[in-house]
Please model this.
Amino acid sequence: MPTLVIYDKGNVDVHYSAAHKIVDNLDNGWLLITEQLGHRKVFGTQK
Model:
């Protein structure tokens, strides 16, 4: 199943290596790197 993993360079909650490990273990995965969204803004919430 195609899977898009979104990771922000400003994420202080999850280290970037976790995003790479996830994508590396997917058969059909892509990694999208964003900037200035942090961990929660990717999903549109600050909570």
Observations:
- The mean pLDDT is 84.
